[in-house]
Design brief:
Blueprint (H helix, E strand, L loop, with lengths): L4 E6 L8 H10 L9 E6 L15 H22 L7 E4 L7 H8 L3 E6 L3 H6 L11 H13 L5 E4 L2 H10 L7 E3 L30 E5 L8 H11 L9 E5 L10 H9 L4 E4 L4 H10 L2 E4 L8 H8 L4 E3 L5 H5 L4 E2 L5 H13 L13 H16 L1
Parallel strand pairs: 1-2, 1-3, 3-4, 4-5, 5-6, 7-8, 7-10, 8-9, 10-11, 11-12
Helix pairs in contact: 2-3, 7-12
Length: 381
Amino acid sequence: MLSETRVLLVTNYREDYQYSMLKFGEILVNKNNAGQNLNIQEIYPSAVLGKWKFLGKFSKWSGYIDKFFFFPKRLIEYLNNEERNINLVHIADHSNSPYLKSIKKVSKAKRLLTCHDLIAVRASLGEFSSAPETSSRGKKLQSWILSSITDADFYACDSNQTKEDLNRIAAYSNKNSKVIHLGTEFSSQNSDCSIYPKNGLSFDPSTTRFILHVGSAAWYKNRKAVLRAFMNVKEHKKNRDLKLILVGPSPQSHEIDFEIKKWIDSDADNLISLQNVSEHLLHSLYTHAETLVFPSFIEGFGWPPLEAASLGCPVITTKTGAIHDLLGKHAKYVDPNCQESINISIGEVLDNWPRKKHVVTLPSNQEFRENYYSLYKNLHY
């Protein structure tokens, strides 16, 4: 009989509030492992200095100390406990690749690293003309992360895009890497518009015409193009009642020019930013949006377009991350550098309203989990 595969899953620092990274770990640390001959233990950096909110602008540095000074010591102690008998260590995020060196020193366990995207690494190498200049400290950090990636035995990537980037930047990964797409659990059965006004919304999603964007204000999300496209469609009389819903922060300074500011000041009621949105509310927004506009320059995976498509929401996006891998012809693709193509695509989708819903079937969390469990066993045996 094969021995039990004992996995130590190293997940992310909670004080970084990376929702998608935490979700990734939660799916894998599922207690329903009966019959799998698999034991998954989880460990992550504790907030030692990071819990002190009064540190203000120094909180980022306190987080680095928690992650890269205190935690490696705890990780080594954990692995040195022979009773745990860890066969495989899975670092759930490549930005924590510096842990690999500590693991390699004290344990014979195989080392698996998941690469979600290499956007920060590539930006530090000057590969994106639209990206802001990476600071000298940022370049050193990304260089450290990149050099530490070599200490893994195997690599799992969220998308073909990420695998191609990894194999190009770190050629040694070419023969020991594979793509495992993340799961998407959004089901149309769970979407309920009765939540208004329980969540304090100023509008009812089921009776409001709106365009949707879900994501941060990071440069690669290209939200400035979304704002400009919305200004364009609002020029048509038939779209005067249309709203733009940003699930994420309100427009930031780098996303606003003179024209956009002038428009925001004159039409503020039709631009709504929502933060800390529940999954239940997000279901409703995807279900009732006229379209999700997601013109990112680059993505590692790209969850929002996949979630939207799984609920029948028309998606306007780019061929990046896993989006094209999984959506194929079931999305309208644009050039993120061409404002006109984004404007035209939104106009075409709005002109075809009301739409016939096309719900796209995507990999489930269970499939995602089983793919990783299979990889764990293959690496162990």
